[in-house]
UniProtKB/TrEMBL annotation:
Its main location: membrane. Residues 16-141 form the Methylamine utilisation protein MauE domain. Keywords: Membrane, Transmembrane, Transmembrane helix. It comes from the Bacteria. GO terms for cellular component: membrane. It is a multi-pass membrane protein. This is Methylamine utilization protein MauE. It is found in: Membrane.
């Protein structure tokens, strides 16, 4: 009897997580996307300071906000949550890989982590922040696949 209760409890927890995780991730990308749009000069300066070719920095300047906002919308619609979770995971993996390359000295210099939405974080803190949200997305994908 007790095992049955725990199973039902787990089902409730899973359901709650599947409801909450997409909203948390969507909030993050809504925040970052709109922040970039509200401060285009700071966003451009931050991207220009990175160890990126100028053309790539400009491409990211124009493409990141709409990509983040689109992913946020995908996370908020029941029919598109799974693709939103996958898209979120891909983008956060790319961001995290870049941070790892910076931290391991691949670029020869460590660019300032300034100019971003999370400008008070250093590179290590930003990596842990990203990995936390990437983990949430992974949990969401697993739960959505089990549903």
């Amino acid at each position: 009897m007790r095992a049955m209760y725990v199973h039902k409890g787990n089902k409730k927890v899973r359901s709650l997580l599947l409801e909450v995780i997409p909203y948390v991730l969507a909030f993050l990308f809504l925040y970052t996307g709109f922040s970039k749009l509200m401060d285009p000069v700071g966003t451009y300066q931050g991207l220009s300071n990175q160890v990126l070719p100028t053309l790539l920095a400009e491409l990211l300047f124009y493409s990141l906000p709409p990509i983040e906002l689109t992913i946020a919308v995908l996370l908020l619609k029941d029919r598109t949550i799974k693709i939103g979770l996958a898209s979120f995971s891909i983008l956060m993996t790319v961001f995290s890989a870049y941070i790892i390359l910076v931290l391991t000295g691949v670029f020869g210099r460590v660019p300032c982590s300034c100019g971003g939405v999370l400008n008070s974080l250093g590179w290590w803190e930003h990596l842990w922040f990203n990995l936390f949200f990437l983990g949430l997305a992974g949990i969401g994908l697993k739960l959505k696949s089990e549903k």
